[in-house]
Specification:
Layout (H helix, E strand, L loop, with lengths): L2 H14 L7 H9 L2 H11 L4 H14 L3 H5 L3 H8 L5 H19 L7 H4 L7 H12 L8 H10 L7 H11 L5 H14 L22
The protein binds iron/sulfur cluster.
The site of iron/sulfur cluster (SF4) has 13 residues, from helix 10.
């Protein structure tokens, strides 16, 4: 798939997107415009269905929605609030470490650069890029499992890992699409282009896709 075609695909998906529910972190970002909540909900969302992340985020943020408020919760309290997100025990230990570092090193504010975000415990490229794009509205490319899989199925990249996909996209994709690329492909992945049984016959971009499945 060439650069002209990917733009046609993204234009189609941008129209279709309105039919689908926002991914949970996009929803939280749109409702709150708060990088800290984007950061914590992204940590919760890893290996977790959106409905579960939504409920866990709601319960946790009701109790604490700032780094200082969250620093007053114990790991045990966080564990109960976020259960049953994936790896909830590990995440319940990681969140206090994250919050402590934000308070000690960053004056209780989420940093707005990829380089600084990557220094935070438990924050990898996927999370850091999502905080940059959805939390701060700055250019970044968040590659999760949907974005990696579908970019390859399109035939737009030929990569083995999400990290390789991110760097391939940074080279090829025009920057004006970086921020929304994740949301468009995640909703396509959640509704049509699922990992095991993609519904190519229902897919709005089937005519453009190389279907490298
Ligand atoms: S045509 Fe099939 S493989 Fe391609 S994006 Fe659509 S569902 Fe996925």
């Amino acid at each position: 798939m060439d650069n002209k075609t990917i733009v046609e695909v993204l234009e189609v998906l941008r129209k279709e997107y309105k039919k689908w529910k926002d991914p949970v972190v996009t929803e939280i970002a749109n409702n709150t415009r708060n990088p800290f909540l984007v950061l914590v909900s992204t940590v919760l969302s890893s290996r977790t269905k959106d409905a579960v992340t939504r409920e866990a985020s709601r319960k946790l943020f009701y109790r604490a929605s700032t780094p200082h408020a969250m620093s007053r919760l114990t790991a045990g309290e966080i564990e109960k609030l976020i259960y049953p997100v994936g790896f909830y025990k590990t995440k319940a230990k990681r969140i206090p470490e994250l919050v402590e570092m934000l308070i000690k090193e960053y004056d209780g504010k989420v940093p707005d650069s990829l380089e600084e975000l990557l220094k935070l415990p438990g924050v990898g490229r996927k999370t850091a890029n999502l905080v940059i794009t959805l939390g701060f509205g700055k250019p970044g490319i968040c590659v999760d499992t949907h974005v990696h899989r579908i970019s390859n199925r399109f035939g737009y990249v030929g990569t083995r890992t999400p990290e390789e996909t991110e760097f391939a996209l940074r080279k090829k994709l025009h920057e004006e699409w970086w921020i929304i690329y994740n949301g468009l492909l995640v909703t396509l992945g959640q509704n049509i282009c699922s990992p095991r049984k993609p519904k190519c016959e229902e897919c709005p971009v089937s005519n453009f896709c190389e279907k490298r499945i």
